[in-house]
Amino acid sequence: MRIVVGLSGGVDSSVAAHMLLEAGHEVIGLFMRNWHDESVIIDEACPWIDDSQDAMLVAEHLGIPFQVLDLSAQYKERIVNYMFDEYAAGRTPNPDVLCNREIKFDLFLQAARDLGAEAVATGHYCQREEVEGPEGPIYRLLAGADPNKDQSYFLCQLTQAQLEAARFPIGGMQKPEVRDLARQIGLPTAEKKDSQGLCFIGKVRLPEFLQQQLAPKEGDIVEIAANHTRLAEARDPAAPIAWRPEDGEVVGRHPGAHYFTVGQRRGINVGGKPEPLFVLEKDVATNTLYVGQSEHHPGLTRHALYIALDEVHWVRPDLALQPGEQRTDWQLRIRYRQPLQTGRIEHLGDRLLLTFDAPQTGVASGQFAAWYAGNEVVGSGVIAG
Fold it and tell me: Is 99 a catalytic residue?
């Protein structure tokens, strides 16, 4: 089978390409260039040039064809503009989830098919399984074998059609095994550190990145006391408290509420408090940032959240809940690396309600919640405000 591998210049995709060759496939290496603007990169060296050179060295080492695919215009349109719009609206997006859905397994897949490939492969730590269903094959998205590296959450928006063409060669391996194999076969990326930063952009200073389009706008920082009466009032447990300026005390100024996210500690820049301040909520309409002392502040926790029906995605459409149905045997996750949480997911008719057995901190609208049946990703959706 002809398979195009997304060579990122890292060790994971390098080993993935090697494993496909060992399995007898015809492999083509393709590096995706998704960003041109170097003004917000932390490192002085241009990361995409370094990464593309590493990817080319890997391809030469493995003896496979190599190309660079420039998707920067599409990336800006589908991912970067989406990020700006979400932050401007007061939500907290996850660009890596969207990058997988819109770039790696859409535009990149189209480019691979133009090269005559039947599938695309990446260095993700997740697994794919094909089982026979009543109406044909069903593709299961499973967690990676290494619990410390499992990236199934980042793929929670993939469709059955995308999974049909996806391959994850290292998903059944532990990270140390990947490193060891890279050393054994002499890959030039064997000792390269894992990348940090936005998908395919590199090490980005997010505030500066947002300030490219979202102009600074000073506003009040309002501290909410941990014993505020509104915290004890009966309210919808799936909705954030709609704080008002009169509910607290102005303790400082911020450069723009849209730059912050719920649960954030750094960047508030207000001292003299017994305990650190954390962002409880932000109101971009009034440009007010609400904060509270301590990571245990009751205003940081929620027991439930909503997902609008038009924001619900079923990786397994055959398991989709119908109005009135609920499941208590699925596990829930609202961020990468978070341990799976027990709870209940139910279809209310007009939206989904996810209720957690344990309170959750830092729940922000715009983030993705995903639900699992054991180690299989069943579906996901965007958290409503």
Answer: yes
Ordered per-residue pLDDT tens for the chain, 385 residues: 999 999 999 999 999 999 999 999 999 999 998 776 655 454 554 466 788 899 999 999 999 999 999 998 998 899 888 988 999 999 999 989 999 999 999 999 999 999 999 999 999 999 999 999 999 999 999 999 999 999 999 999 999 999 999 999 999 999 999 999 999 999 999 999 886 555 545 555 666 677 667 888 999 999 999 999 998 876 788 988 999 999 999 999 999 999 999 999 999 999 999 999 999 999 999 999 999 999 999 999 999 999 999 999 999 999 999 999 999 999 999 999 999 999 999 999 999 999 999 999 989 999 999 999 999 999 999 999 7
199 is catalytic: yes
The beta strands (E) that lie in the chain are given as 2-6, 26-33, 66-70, 119-121, 126-133, 136-143, 166-167, 219-223, 249-254, 277-283, 288-293, 301-308, 312-314, 326-327, 331-333, 341-347, 351-361, 368-373, 376-382
Question: Is residue 231 within 8 Å of 241, Cβ to Cβ?
Answer: yes
Which superfamily does 301-382 belong to? Translation factors (2.40.30.10)
User: How many CB atoms lie under 10 A from the CB of residue 136?
Assistant: 7
CA dist 68 and 86 (Å) reads: 30
**Token pair listed for 220:** 């009040």
* CATH number for the domain whose boundaries are 216-296: 2.30.30.280
| Pairing assessment for the beta strands 219-223 and 288-293 based on DSSP bridges | parallel
The 3-state DSSP class for residue 224 equals coil
Q: Which of 46, 99, 126, 156 is catalytic?
A: 99
- Reported as half-sphere exposure (CB side, CA atoms, 13 A), residue 272 has a value of 4
Single out the residue of 168, 133, 152 nearest to residue 374, CA to CA: 152
* CA–CA dist 71, 51 (Å, integer): 15
Query: For the domain with range 2-209, which CATH number is right: 3.30.160.20, 3.40.50.620, 3.40.50.300, 3.40.50.2000?
Result: 3.40.50.620
Domain coordinates of the chain in residue numbers? 2-209, 216-296, 301-382
For residues 345 and 356, give the distance between their C-alpha atoms in angstroms, rounded to a whole number.
9
**Annotated active-site residue in 46, 126, 156, 199:** 199
